DNA sequence: GTCTATAGCTAGATAGAC
DNA sequence: GTCTATCTAGCTATAGAC
C-alpha cells in the first residue's frame, strides 16, 4: 500500500506531532514511519542523517513558523495593542489552547539534550526579541521591556507544563490574559 | 567489585540524578546500574517493578521533600516574609541556582507521560497549596492568592527551561526575586 | 523514491549460583 | 542481597530489488 508521494511539508508536520507527544527518545523509527505513511527506509532516503536529521528538519520548520508568523506580526505596522492580541491568538492556536506540549521542550531532554540546544536557543531568542520590540513600542523602558519579553516565554512554557500535568488548559488561557494585562498596564 | 550494601536512600538519590539529567526514556538500566553502583539484577531485586518502580520511588522521595521541606516551612509560625525567603532559598538549592532540571518535568514526557502524571500532579498541588496559604497570610484575597501561588510554580518551571536552554542561570535567579517582589507588594 | 528484508546492537528483564 | 550470564524484543540503520 501507499507508494504515493507524500509532500515533504506534510511529512515534517507529522514528524513534529510525534516528537511533540512522545519526545525524542520516545519516538521510534517505526512510529515515525507509521505516522508519515512512509517506510523506515524511505524516511532515511529523505533524511540521510536519520532521526537526528528529522528532528533538525522539524526545528527548522518551527523556526520558520516563529519567524514568519509570530515575529512578523509583532513587528508589523499595526497599533501595538493589536499586534499583541494577534500574537497571543497565534500562540493560543499553536498550543491548541494549552492542550498541546511544546515540541521545543520535547526535544530538550534525554539523548537529545545536547543535540538541539543551540537551534532551540535561537528560536527562544527570536521569540524574546520580538516581544521586546513590542514592549518598547508600548512604552516600557529598556530593562523592563527585556524582562517582560522573557517573562512571556517563561510563563507560556511553565503554564503548558501545569496545564498538561493538572489537565487544566484554563491555566494556559489565564496566563495569556495575564500577559496581555501586563503589557496594557503601561498605557 | 562493589558487593557492599548501598543505602536505599543513596540509591534513590542517584536514580533521581539520572532521570533528572536524561529523562525516563533516556535512562537505560545499564546507566541506572552504573550510577547506583549496583548490577541490573540487584536493582530489580530492590525494585521488582523495574524502571517504572524506580521512577515511582523517586517521585515518592520528591513528594516527601516538598512536603517536609517546602510545605513545612511555608506553614510554620514564623512571620510571612521570613517564610517566603526560606522557601525561595530551598527552591534555589533544589535546582542549584537554575543549573539543574526538574525531575518532575523529566518524568512527564515520552513513554512516561501517562505513567506518572497523577503523582506529579499531586506534588504540584501540594506546592500550589503551600504558596496559596502563604499568600493569604500576606493579605491577598482568595482569588489573587490562588493565582499568585500557581504563578510561582509556572515561573519556576518556565525559567528553568529558559535558564538551561539559554545557558543563563541568571534567568532563574531573577524569577525568584520577582516572586519575592510580588508577594511583598501587598504589604 | 519507494519498498521488503535484515543486519547489528542495546534495551528491559530474568535465571540461578553464591 | 548481590552477582554473572543470558533471554527476547525492539531499536537504529542499511542493502538492494523495483
Protein described:
Helix content of chain A is 76%, strand content 0%. In chain A, helix 1 packs across helix 4, helix 4 runs antiparallel to helix 5 and helix 5 runs antiparallel to helix 9. Chain A has a domain of 126 residues: Tetracycline Repressor, domain 2 (Orthogonal Bundle). Chain A is mostly helical and 187 residues long. The mean pLDDT of chain A is 96. Chains A and B meet through helix 1, helix 6, helix 7, helix 8 and helix 9 of A and helix 1, helix 7, helix 8 and helix 9 of B. Chain A binds a DNA duplex (18 and 18 nucleotides) through helix 3.
Q: Hey, roughly how much beta strand do the residues of chain A contain?
A: under 5%
**Which secondary-structure class do the elements of chain A indicate?**
mainly alpha
Number of helices of chain A: 9
Task: Calculate Rg of chain A over CA atoms.
Answer: 18 Å
Note the gap between the termini of chain A: 60 Å
> What is the CATH C-level name of the domain at 59-184 in chain A?
Mainly Alpha
- CATH fold description of the domain at 59-184 in chain A: Tetracycline Repressor, domain 2
The helix-strand sequence of chain A is: HHHHHHHHH
Count of individual beta strands of chain A: 0
The overall pLDDT of chain A, averaged over residues, is 96
- Report the CATH architecture of the domain at 59-184 in chain A: Orthogonal Bundle
Low-confidence stretches of chain A: none
Show the largest interface: A-B, 39 and 38 residues
What is the CATH superfamily label of the domain at 59-184 in chain A? Answer: Tetracycline Repressor, domain 2
Multimeric state of these chains?
homodimer
Helix content of chain A: over 70%
Global morphology of chain A: elongated
Amino acid at each position: 500500500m501507499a507508494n504515493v508521494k507524500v509532500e515533504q511539508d506534510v511529512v515534517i508536520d507529522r514528524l513534529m506531532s510525534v516528537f511533540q507527544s512522545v519526545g525524542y527518545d520516545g519516538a521510534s523509527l517505526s512510529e515515525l514511519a507509521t505516522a508519515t505513511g512512509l517506510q523506515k527506509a524511505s524516511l532515511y532516503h529523505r533524511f540521510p542523517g536519520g532521526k537526528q536529521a528529522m528532528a533538525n528538519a522539524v526545528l527548522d520548520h518551527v523556526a520558520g513558523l516563529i519567524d514568519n508568523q509570530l515575529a512578523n506580526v509583532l513587528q508589523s505596522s499595526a497599533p501595538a495593542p493589536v499586534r499583541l492580541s494577534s500574537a497571543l491568538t497565534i500562540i493560543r492556536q499553536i498550543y491548541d489552547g494549552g492542550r498541546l506540549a511544546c515540541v521545543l521542550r520535547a526535544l530538550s531532554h534525554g539523548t537529545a539534550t545536547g543535540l538541539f540546544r543551540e537551534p532551540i536557543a535561537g528560536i527562544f531568542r527570536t521569540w524574546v526579541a520580538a516581544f521586546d520590540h513590542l514592549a518598547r513600542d508600548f512604552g516600557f523602558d529598556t530593562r523592563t521591556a527585556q524582562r517582560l519579553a522573557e517573562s512571556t516565554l517563561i510563563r507560556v512554557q511553565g503554564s503548558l507544563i501545569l496545564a498538561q500535568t493538572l489537565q487544566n488548559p484554563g491555566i494556559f488561557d489565564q496566563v495569556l490574559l495575564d500577559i496581555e494585562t501586563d503589557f496594557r498596564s503601561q498605557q
